[in-house]
Design a protein that fits this description.
The protein has helices at about 35-60, 70-95, 100-135, 145-170, and strands at about 15, 20-25, 25-30, 100, 170-175. It has about 180 residues and is mostly helical. A hairpin with a 5-residue loop joins strand 1 (about 15) and strand 2 (about 20-25).
């Protein structure tokens, strides 16, 4: 079922004999046996945690250009916005156990891989902009911070790309 309107999924909640609304729609889960599903969940949570820590950590580093250069700061802001968009879809799919309601699955799964690739692209832009700033203005007496920032950007690029490929390859089944 495709959900074109925001409230269309409410038709899948029905009153039970106690007068409470109960979800009567379809559920989805990652395809596989219990151990495979558990290892997949652990893997996606590790990917998300690592990417989140690397992006937020890179913003906490006092690297050259992060304090006063719009072309270094704007890609980082875009990266953080995409991180939170990714996180919202991620939590809708993976935060409530191994069963996902159809409306969460149909909306959120399609957004995960593109948001993860968006994170990789904005991290790459952020990396390039930082390099340009360093080439033009030097390290601004922050050599260690700059190197650490650039290394974290490379790590985010690689992690987000691997995550995008992995999440995009997950097979889901109706349960």
């Amino acid at each position: 079922m495709k959900y074109s309107k925001k409230s269309q999924y409410l038709n899948e909640y029905k009153l039970d004999e106690n007068g409470k609304y109960v979800y009567r729609g379809k559920y989805f889960s990652i395809d596989g046996n219990t151990n495979e599903i558990k290892s997949t969940y652990i893997r996606v949570w590790v990917y998300f945690s690592v990417i989140f820590a690397a992006i937020i950590g890179s913003g906490c580093i006092n690297a050259a250009g992060m304090n006063n250069s719009f072309y270094v700061i704007i890609p980082y802001i875009a990266e953080v916005v995409l991180l939170f968009a990714y996180g919202l879809s991620f939590f809708k799919l993976f935060a409530k156990g191994y069963r996902v309601k159809e409306y969460n699955y149909s909306v959120s799964f399609k957004k995960l891989s593109p948001a993860s690739m968006g994170i990789a692209v904005t991290a790459a832009i952020s990396f390039i902009c930082s390099l340009v700033f360093i080439i033009i203005n030097g390290f601004d007496n922050q050599i260690i911070g700059c190197i650490l920032y650039l290394l974290l950007k490379i790590f985010v690029i690689c992690s987000a790309f691997v995550n995008s490929r992995y999440v995009g390859s997950l097979k889901w089944m109706e349960i």
